[in-house]
Fold this sequence. Notes:
By secondary structure, the chain is an alpha+beta fold. 38% of the residues lie in helices and 15% in strands. The protein has a single domain, classed as Muramoyl-pentapeptide Carboxypeptidase, domain 2 (2-Layer Sandwich). The protein is built from five helices and two strands, in the order ααααβαβ. The longest helix is centred in the middle third of the chain and has 9 residues, at 29-37.
Amino acid sequence: MKICENHTLKDFTHSSTAKYKGLVNNPTHSHIKNMKSLCGPIEFLELFTTVEISSGFRSFYVNKAVGGAENSSHTKGLGVDFYSGPRF
């Protein structure tokens, strides 16, 4: 499922920690709607740079496992960490 033009739900939910620890990291429809709200700024940035998502949605247990803040935006589908670099 596409969340943004260049990013999928898999990009937003991938977690090495979840995979390693066998944790479920599935967002609800509400979380997905929130993730889609982040697309405008990401797509604008992609006009000038490449963007690779390093952390998007985190379930409560994944967030806890990575040491995230208790009220992290990631648990609401409203946080995204990424790497970017020059497009050319």
